[in-house]
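Aggregate trends can hide what the representation actually does to any particular protein. The sequence in question and its structure tokens are set out directly beneath this paragraph.
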Amino acid sequence: MSSGDDRRSQALAKPALSEAQACAVVESEFGFQVSEIQPLPSYDDQNFRVRVSRPGDAAGGPTEYVLKISNTESSKNPDLIEVQSHVAVFLYEAGFPTASVCRTRDGGVTSLVSVDSGSQTKSHLVRLLTYLPGRPIAEVPVGPQLLYEIGRLAATLDKTLEEFHHPKLRCLRREDFIWNLRNVPLLEKYLSALGQNRNREMVEEVLRLFKDEVLPKVSITATSTTTTF
């Protein structure tokens, strides 16, 4: 499949809810009255930042959330979204600065909604997470200390997740998932987007080194840890 085909397929799968539809989802599935909403950047899902109005007897709770609407393909795999949500809950309870998951009216972590997209009705899994204020790493000066802190946090996160257990954990092991670091070689089919220049040469070299030096070690590690899943 060409990169153009990939983009067309992604466009078909990505949600395209209007702000009014997103507000209706928050109100019907989570029971909050939306006072303000704005779209957030996303890749193949759709995200909205929402501010909710709370009644006087519920004062003190969060008032800002992120409504995450999964694409049609991911929505066909509710186990995957469920496990991701439980990972977020696990990390939040372990003290990490992660978003917490807001339960649906029915007490679940996700809800499947049908949305009129104009030409047809599509089904999407939706989640509501607490909004975390901050700045993306791309917008702040990066120095050795910040990189050290990021690395330390990543290592602590990795160690903590060793204690996470869920009966559907295996669904996270998607062999063809392009965002899985062990699947770096899958990027080769997108090299044409770089043209013929120095950037492409560097990327090709990184891919070669990954296949020669990293993949053999990853394969050994995967074989030795298979029984833990």
Q: What stands out?
A: Residues 198-225 form the longest helix (28 residues). The CA atoms of residues 31 and 138 lie 35 Å apart. Residues 1-5, 223-229 have pLDDT under 50 and may be disordered.
